Amino acid sequence: MTILSTSYIKISLYFHVTLFLLLSLTNSESQQEHSILLKIKLHLQNPSFLTHWNSSNTSYCSWPEIACTTGSVTGLTLVNHAIAQTIPSFICDLKNLTHVDFSQNLIPGEFPKDLFKCSNLEYLDLSLNNFVGKIPYDIQSLVHLQYLNLGSTNFDGEIPSSIGELKDLRFLHLQYCLFNETFHFEGKFLKILEIWLHWRNWIYQEII
Ligand SMILES: *[C@@H]1O[C@H](CO)[C@@H](O)[C@H](O)[C@H]1NC(C)=O
Ligand SMILES: *[C@@H]1O[C@H](CO)[C@@H](O)[C@H](O)[C@H]1NC(C)=O
Ligand SMILES: *[C@@H]1O[C@H](CO)[C@@H](O)[C@H](O)[C@H]1NC(C)=O
Ligand SMILES: *[C@@H]1O[C@H](CO)[C@@H](O)[C@H](O)[C@H]1NC(C)=O
């Protein structure tokens, strides 16, 4: 009897410690995501459209700009807010991001290469911003990309042929940029449905 209850206590203790560890792990991950979001807000210089992103409101999955899957941030949509800061370099600390939309802002600078650390990224919209320079060749590191819109920016030069290596890409929008119209895609688009490329007009192509 004593032996039985001792081992029962041991098992029960083990179970509760494990449960506690699991819960605190989940909890600290969500605290971490919350603090990353507050850091993003700070980086954007505490704009008034983000007053609801604050430390007293920890239910960030209910913030309109955030999408979550099983309690973890997967989408960030900050569209048409006249954002004039760069994309935060630590944005991919939100490890489960699949959807990033910063379209219709005034974001300056080069292509934000820090986005390459978002290894799960499927949807990227940076259109209608003030970006300059080239699209980096290593755009191909975003292997899960399905939608890419870099239109209406000042990206110039050659469109990197490595875009052709993005096998899941279905939508490629590069209209109204300063590209020099020469483009050669390496690899094969396996699934592409729509390409908009032209400098003034857009070209619609279906290449399934
Ligand atoms: C925090 O956000 C809530 C809405 O979620 C808002 O009611 C409150 O005023 C905010 N607090 C501060 C200090 O801005
Ligand atoms: C947190 O913010 C969301 C969106 O602004 C709001 O719907 C929710 O009621 C807020 N929660 C608290 C506890 O303030
Ligand atoms: C990302 O998602 C996975 C699987 O759903 C989950 O186990 C993990 O806790 C999430 N990461 C964060 C930082 O919340
Ligand atoms: C396009 O740009 C590339 C690299 O900047 C250059 O090598 C090429 O000659 C340009 N082509 C045209 C048609 O301007």
Structure description:
With 208 residues, the chain is an alpha/beta fold. It has a domain at 56-196: Leucine-rich repeat, LRR (right-handed beta-alpha superhelix) (Alpha-Beta Horseshoe), CATH 3.80.10. The protein is 20% helix and 18% strand. It is built from one helix and eleven strands; from the N terminus they run H-E-E-E-E-E-E-E-E-E-E-E. Strand 1 (66-69) and strand 2 (72-77) form a beta hairpin. The chain is globular and about 70 Å long. One 2-acetamido-2-deoxy-beta-D-glucopyranose (NAG) is lined by residues 157-158, 180, 182.
**From the helix content, strand content and strand pairing, which structural class follows?**
alpha/beta
Q: Which strand order does the major sheet show?
A: 1-2-3-5-7-9-11
Q: Radius of gyration over alpha carbons?
A: 22 Å
Count of runs of 4 or more consecutive helical residues: 1
Instruction: Tell how many strands the DSSP assignment holds.
Output: 11
CATH class identity of the domain at 56-196: Alpha Beta
User: Ligands bound here?
Assistant: 2-acetamido-2-deoxy-beta-D-glucopyranose
CATH arch. level architecture of the domain at 56-196: Alpha-Beta Horseshoe
The topology string of helices and strands comes to HEEEEEEEEEEE
Distance between the termini: 71 Å
Mean pLDDT: 85
Mass-distribution shape = globular
> How is the biggest beta sheet arranged?
7 strands, mixed
Helix content: 10-25%
Quaternary structure type: single chain
CATH-level-4 superfamily name of the domain at 56-196 = Ribonuclease Inhibitor
**CATH fold topology of the domain at 56-196:** Leucine-rich repeat, LRR (right-handed beta-alpha superhelix)
Strand content: 15-25%
Uncertain residue segments: 200-208
